[in-house]
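Ectoine hydroxylase-related dioxygenase, phytanoyl-CoA dioxygenase (PhyH) family
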Amino acid sequence: MTQVQAPVGVPMTEDERDQFERDGYLVVRSVLTDDEVAVARAAILRFRERRGAAGALHQLSAVTACPELAFLLDHPRVFGYVWSLLGWNIHVYHSHVDVHPQLTRRQPDWWHWHQDGGRQNRELETDPRPRMSVKLAYWLSDVSEPGRGNFTVLPGSHRINWLPGPPRRDVAWPAPQGAVQITANAGDVVVFDRRLWHARSDNYSPVTRVGAFFGYTYRWVAGRDDVGGLPRRPEWATFSPVQRQLLGGAGNGDGDHAWGHEPSTTPLYGELANRGLLDGAIPALIR
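Structure:
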């Protein structure tokens, strides 16, 4: 799709803001035209084909994977919601594209409910935690009926730091009381607060679920030091693993490591564990 200078949209209305603050999300209907849906959907499915993935796909860095999706970053029909909530000093810090075809057998029990932000939800100590980011979920397939892998939310839960759940994620557990599956047509967008407790339901329908997701946060949620050349300099080999972590060098390059999903690969976690310093009374230290 040819990129043009797009308007930045219009601010959200006071009624929309009130609804967002109450529920933690908004469903915006018919944001994309049929042609825009077709362009975005085709780009994602082509990427999946190039990857040789016939089944489900969850790919980080949406525009890196599919440059054709750049027009979704600031789509004028929906971008106004982002800057109305976060202001102008923002960037995309997390994005992904997803494909979920029909499941032919029942999946094992798994507690999918979560808030976005990873370790933010351990390491920010206020109650409720600050918003920090909002996310746009573009639907590129028909999820207008439940049971199609619908985005499932607990309205108002962005004000709740902890959600009662099972002792382990693989234990059968009922969905939170009041949870709803959001139904949407291709071209609709869900704008949601990253703190909103949500989950993806399983898709047992013949409709392949396709979506693109963009998370926005403040530009100061990023490293300010310029250390890009350090890993290529001989001094790098003399630094300890913790020192490399502090300089942004830990991880395997998949774009997700800094969120702390794999503590065992984080050098400082290992050092604290070896020294018996992971005090369970300190939430930020809990695995």
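The longest strand covers residues 90-100.
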